[in-house]
From TrEMBL:
This is Cobalamin synthesis protein cobW C-terminal domain. Pfam families: CobW_C. The lineage of its organism: Bacteria, Pseudomonadati, Pseudomonadota, Gammaproteobacteria, Enterobacterales. Residues 92-170 form the CobW C-terminal domain.
Amino acid sequence: MANKSDVWQAADRDALQSWQENAAAGRPVYQIERGQMDVALLDLPRTNHAELPDGQHHHAHAAPQGLAALRLPSNSRWRRALNQGQGYTACGWIFDGDTEFDTIGMMEWIRLAPVDRAKGVVRIAEGTLVINRQGQDLSIETRPAPPLDSRIELIHSADADWNALQSALFKIRLG
């Protein structure tokens, strides 16, 4: 299935034709325009029966970045990390699994943070608070089981007073 053939350039058509001649192993190519295709094509028998190689060794798996890569050093209760890229600055915190936050305080802190985006998965008395804010759009979810650790990330298109935000964050930390 060769999608979006209605917007191809001549070079795109040439590249597809070259691929079909050199690598398609006689398999047909069906050009699809504007997402419209004959669904009967899905019922055609498979013509490529060659076993596919395990591609794991061919792919460089990106290491986690940003807050996902953040780990706590031994015996640390929390850690902060700053990151910049693509015109944004991010500040993230990770807290150990014993740190608990005030539920209402966390929702207000996320809602009022003067940043473009705020997201977090934090431990609260009720279990877990999953919170995500982009602009004025706010999504809140609670789960009964606590998370392994608490992670919060703020993202902004300009510099922010991360120290003041951290100070306010620490005031809603219960333990």
